[in-house]
Amino acid sequence: MDLGLKGRSVIVCASSDGIARAAAGKFAQEGARVAMCSRDEKKLRAAADEIRNNHGAEVFAYPLDVTSEKDVNDFVARVAAQFGGIDICVTNAGGPPPKMFLSTNTEEWHRAIELNFMSVVYFAHAVIPWMRKKHWGRIVTLTSVATRQPVYELVYSNAVRAGVLGLVKSLSNEFGRDGITVNNVGPGYTATSRLKHLVQNRAAEEGISEDDFFKRLGSQTALQRVGEADEVADAIVWLASDRASFITGQTLLVDGGLYKGL
């Protein structure tokens, strides 16, 4: 199936690792030109080099902090200059620390809002004018199943990421007439370095093995397993493609059936 992504210019945020790294590789595999960013310059450069070598793709890698509006604007301007515009933007950022509510503090709340909400605002502000010029664009936000079903001990993520859904719906309504679709992908338990770190800590606290803890997480899903980064990346790439041209304002959960609602 031709996804219509060959030659498209794509930004994938926080793409030095995990789901976004997998998505950047899949966009490159489809023939897109890919711009990657991350705070970790060493990991970013290594990921970009691997994608270039594996797919022969044009890859632009630039270290930045997605909570800095200036950094985001500079990055988008550089990408647009190199690629001649921007067609697709996948927003993403690392998750806030796991906390129960009474352990939270004001500083961390502000940090979570900047990291997981305002970063989306900054990128949307920067890329939408370029998309409007072509009357074509795709914005895909990467959040969590927590937007539909809060996850225990992740109160920052549960609260802040839910706000992204309101932004996604608002942007989809406002810019649909410009040929721009805006959707959200909500992964469930996925075998990323972040989940592995959380499992390591929780398993140690409970005195059980990490394998047993992963099995416990998997048992909560209909498919009885934890997902892989590539499986979520496939959904991101599809939503950004021509094949999903009549889908906007939606949240696609890629969670193996973890969410129990209708």
Descriptive overview:
It is a single chain. The model has no long low-confidence stretch (mean pLDDT 96). The two termini are 30 Å apart. This protein is of the alpha/beta class. It is built from 8 helices and 7 strands. α5 (155-175) links the parallel β5 and β6 (180-187). Helix content is 48%, strand content 14%. A 7-stranded parallel β-sheet has the order 3-2-1-4-5-6-7, sandwiched between helices. The protein folds into 2 domains: 9-190 and 229-254, Rossmann fold (3-Layer(aba) Sandwich); 191-226, no CATH class.
Descriptors:
48% helix, 14% strand, single chain, Rossmann fold, alpha/beta, 7-stranded parallel sheet, 262 residues, 2 domains, 7 strands
Question: In summary, what is this structure?
Answer:
The protein is α/β, with parallel strands linked by helices and 262 residues long.
